[in-house]
Structures are given as structure tokens and as C-alpha cells.
Amino acid sequence: MAPCIVLEDELRTFKNAFTVNLRDDIVFVVKRLRRGNIARSLFEEGMKAIGSIEHENVNRVYLGWETRIQIAVGATKGLVHIHTQRNVKLLHGSIKASNIFLNPQRYGCLADINIFATSEISSYQEPAALTTKELSQKSNAYSFVILLTKLLSGKSPLHFSAWNALRIAGDEWTALVFDKGLLKDPVVKQGMRDMLAVALSCLDKKAEERPNMSHVDKEWEFMHTKLAA
To answer: What Pfam families does this protein's entry cite (predicted)?
Structure first.
């Protein structure tokens, strides 16, 4: 049955809000921003205010190296599972940090598995997606590696240009990028270098030259076993 829609302008400030009344007595509220610019400073102030909120359910726990490896191991296995389904070629359409949850053992678990790429192009997606807006399983490998930059640095994802600089500059530059809290342990420092080496292999501009996630999974398993030894 086609819905009976009634639109009503509710607000006359920065946006319009419309109520959508369906015949089944279900009401939706849709907000649409008006054309125009909101001052960047106003936006930044709002984000700072939100970021300063403290709540008992928001726990900023520092993640040790073993936990970071486990996040990589778990999330990789999730991608391998998606990529190796029989008779169908699937991919994850929205790989980003907020879509990885931790299980009780602190292994990464993939969430929000969109089999189609979302219309939003994020900093996790390969440069080619900016023009083609098409993703593949090798695109997933690229996005996953950008996610790894958060595990290595504890900061926002690095862009492709930064990774290229890192590829060229080597150890001196990586010391500035890696999470300083982890560099004190020489074993962990070597593990971070190993993770970086795997990550860089997945950043080839030619998608066909990138390793598949099954190969990456074996690398993480080796690193995890070596750490536990």
C-alpha cells in the first residue's frame, strides 16, 4: 500500500524539518540542511563540547600491543570469511574503526557489513574510489590497512600521501608516527615494524598487486604467535 505523505515545515533556522505521516500511523521526522555554510569555528566548538563529555559508559582505556594485534587478527578473519563465501563475491562496504567491536577476549569483530559500498567516500577508501566510487575485495585490503594506521599510531587514519612518505623515509619517520607509548619495548617496536611492512604491501596503487586478506591473516597469526612465545 502506498504511503500517504504529509509534509510540514517545522523549523526555519539552519534546516527544515518535515514530518512524514504514513497511513499506518507511523511518523518520521526528516531534517534537511538548507543551502549555505555554517562557520567552521562554530562546528569545531560543537565537536569540542561533545568530545569533552565524560560518562561512566565511555571508558578511554589505553590499548596495549597485544590487544591491537588481536583487533587486527579478529577483523582480518572477519574479512577473510566475507571474501571466501562460495558462489558469490562479497565485500565489506564500510570498513572503518567505528565498525570494529571487541569481543570479551578483545579480538576485533566486524560490524555494519554493507555488501554494497556506501555513497560516502571516506579517508579509509583507496584514491581510485574517489573517481570510480566502486569498491572491490582488494579495495577492502586498502581500507583495512588505513585502519591499521590507527593501531600503529593511536591517531586518525593517515592518507595515502603520508604512507608514501613513510615508505620512502623509513625508520626515522616511523618513529614519529608510531604510538610513543609502545616504542619503549624493543619487541613491540619490532612488531610494529612488521605490521607496517605488511600494511605497505597492501597499498600498491595497482589493486591486482595487493595481497588478499587470507595472506594478511597468516601474517597476523605469525605475529600473534611470536608475541605469545
So the answer is: PK_Tyr_Ser-Thr
Q: The cell 604510538 sits on which residue? A: 179
Query: How many Cα neighbours within 13 Å face the side chain of 203?
Result: 22
- Determine the number of helices (DSSP H) and then strands (DSSP E) in the chain: 8, 4
CATH 1.10.510.10 region(s) of the chain?
65-228
- Extract the C-alpha cell encoding 9: 515545515
52-75 tens-digit pLDDT: 666 666 566 678 888 888 888 888
Alpha-carbon distance of 18 to 188, in angstroms, equals 54
Contact between 85 and 98 (Cβ < 8 Å): no
Q: Residue 152, exposed/middle/buried by CB under 10 A (0-12, 13-18, 19+)?
A: buried
The number of C-alpha atoms within 13 Å of 199 and in the hemisphere containing its C-beta is 27
Confirm or reject CATH 1.10.510.10 for domain 65-228, answering yes or no: yes
Q: Collapsing DSSP states into helix, strand and coil, what is residue 12? A: coil
